[in-house]
User: Fold this.
Amino acid sequence: MKKIIIHLVPVIMIVLVSQISCMQKYKTAADMEKLNKEYTEVSNDVAELSSKLTVAQNDLPAYQSKAKAEESNAQNAASESSKQAAKSTGGDVDDAKKAKKKANKALDEAKDAKDAENEVKDQDKKIKKLAEELDKKKKRLQELDQIRASIAGTNRGTTNTATKSIDTTAKSVDTIHNSVDTTKNPADTTKPM
Assistant:
């Protein structure tokens, strides 16, 4: 069983690498226009996401301070409600009505505090999501840079090969001309009269 696994691992690796290379969207210089278009779009997305992330991060302290203020208000309202409830136990109907109002106010303040805390959590989630999207876009930019470099390398290789081929052909032609010049008959070089 171990031998099978040992032999399968390299095969699986080769298959995965070949699939990844086949999946590459841009392969030739003709694809450069599409590549540049996608590169521009992804660059714009990175700039936009960076801006949104910065705004979200700058807004977070305001949400946090609002949540702290709402929590403090809720605690104060709960404390007042508790005091009023203590008074109403030994008091009359008016004291009970005041206790009920204070209890409702405390409940409203507690709901506001909870809403403010949820806003902080939502802002944290938004920041996390934007950061993840930004990382994905930056990785895609790096991939596009690598593809661009590989295409440029291929083009340079093709250009170098073509240049070498032209140089070889030119040398061959020069060699042929030189051999023709050396094999000429001296009688052929004289002018007819």
